[in-house]
Predict the 3D structure of the following.
Amino acid sequence: MSKGLLHHIEIYVSDIKRTVDFWGWFLEELGYTSFQEWEGGQSWKLHDTYIVFVQADDRFLDIPYHRCRVGLNHLAFHANSRQHVDEMTTKLKEKGINILYQENHPFAGGNNYYAVYFEDPDRIKVELVAPE
């Protein structure tokens, strides 16, 4: 057991199909593998950590997610290198995924902070950051 390491994250989403289409390729590019799949949800696992996406009930869809409200702001993942960030940025653009902070990309996080920022279908901000 790895004391203190993240075990899993569970995120409720507005459209599980769009979410699976979006996150599946991205997580698999980072080395995650499909872990569990059921009606209304799916998860991916890397080593001892997994990420779960679950379809929210209709009764909870009236107020959309916004990262500036109380709760999750964004998820940040390690990239292997700056080249990895660049390759993933190209793939994101090919898929029509909006790159955030384009005017400062890839240094939107600061001078030596090399990353790409984008949003999932529910506008959860995602970051892929190269090692310094």
User: Anything to note?
Assistant: The chain has two domains: 7-54, 73-132. The mean pLDDT is 94.
